[in-house]
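sry for the spam today, last one i promise. C-alpha cells for design, 253 residues
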C-alpha cells in the first residue's frame, strides 16, 4: 500500500473510498469533446515526395472537415466500415485551440493554442481511389473524401492534451507509429511544409476558430517509412509523440 511521509494511505480517502487506481483498472476517456475537427492534408515534405502529390500553393494547406462523431479516445475500438475493404491509419500532431481566433498572424498564432495531442486519422482508402477509376466512378477523389474520412470512430485522439507551455516548440517532436508492436512509421514535426503557427494563420483568415477546435496537422512520414499504412481487423495501433504519450486503439470488425 502506498503511503505519504506520515504513513497515511494514498490509495483511499479519509472516508475509506478508493481514490488511486492502476492503469488497467480504469478507462481513459478522450481528452476533449470535439465540436469541430479540421484536418490538414499533404503537409509533410516526405509525404509529398513519397505519395508523388503536387505541392499545394505557397502559403496554403489542403484542408477537410471531419464530423465530430468520428472522434474517439484511447482504448476505444476503431470500427471497420461495411462499405470499405481497405483502411489505413495516419499519425498526426493535433492542435487544440484555446481562444477565439480570427485573422491572427503567424507571429501570434501560438498564443491561441491550448495544447497538443496525438491524432490517428483513419481513412477508407478504396473509396478515395474511386476518383481514379473510369466512367461514372471517375470523379475527382475529393468527391469521396468526406465519406472516406468521416465514418464513425475514424479519428482517435489522446491519450492526453499536453499544455502548450510544456511544448514551447511544436516543430521538433519525434513520433513513432506501431502496429502489433512493429514499427511502421517514424517522423518529426520539423518536416512540416507549413508549421503550426502558419497553419493557424492560414485557416483563421476566413474561418473563425473557437476554443476546443481540433486541427490535425498532416500525416508524418520519412524517406524510409510511407505515411499511409493499411491495417487489418484485430490490429493494435499505437502512435507516440514526444511529450504527449502513446495513443492506442484496436481495429474491430
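last one done:
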Amino acid at each position: 500500500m502506498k503511503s505519504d511521509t506520515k504513513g497515511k494511505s494514498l490509495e483511499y480517502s479519509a472516508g475509506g473510498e478508493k481514490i488511486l487506481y492502476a492503469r488497467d483498472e480504469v478507462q481513459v476517456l478522450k481528452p476533449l469533446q470535439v465540436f469541430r475537427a479540421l484536418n490538414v492534408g499533404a503537409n509533410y515534405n516526405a509525404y509529398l515526395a513519397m505519395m508523388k502529390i503536387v505541392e499545394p500553393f505557397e502559403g496554403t494547406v489542403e484542408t477537410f472537415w471531419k464530423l465530430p462523431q468520428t472522434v474517439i479516445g484511447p482504448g476505444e475500438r476503431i470500427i471497420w466500415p461495411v462499405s470499405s475493404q481497405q483502411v489505413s491509419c495516419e499519425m498526426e500532431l493535433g492542435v487544440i485551440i484555446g481562444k477565439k481566433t480570427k485573422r491572427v498572424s503567424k507571429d501570434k498564432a501560438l498564443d491561441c493554442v491550448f495544447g497538443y495531442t496525438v491524432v490517428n486519422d483513419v481513412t477508407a482508402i478504396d473509396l478515395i481511389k474511386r476518383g481514379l477509376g473510369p466512367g461514372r466512378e471517375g470523379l475527382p477523389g475529393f468527391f469521396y473524401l468526406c465519406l472516406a474520412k468521416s465514418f464513425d470512430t475514424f479519428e482517435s485522439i489522446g491519450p492526453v492534451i499536453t499544455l502548450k507551455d510544456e511544448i514551447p516548440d511544436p516543430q521538433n517532436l519525434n513520433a513513432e507509429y506501431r502496429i502489433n508492436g512493429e514499427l511502421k512509421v517514424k517522423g518529426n514535426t520539423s518536416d512540416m511544409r507549413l508549421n503550426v503557427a502558419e497553419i493557424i494563420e492560414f485557416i483563421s483568415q476566413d474561418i473563425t476558430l473557437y476554443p476546443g477546435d481540433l486541427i490535425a496537422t498532416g500525416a508524418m512520414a520519412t524517406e524510409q517509412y510511407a505515411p499511409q499504412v493499411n491495417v487489418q481487423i484485430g490490429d493494435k495501433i499505437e502512435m507516440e509523440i514526444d511529450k504527449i504519450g502513446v495513443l492506442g486503439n484496436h481495429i474491430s470488425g
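The helical segments are 45-51, 106-109, 125-129, 142-149, 196-204. ok im logging off now
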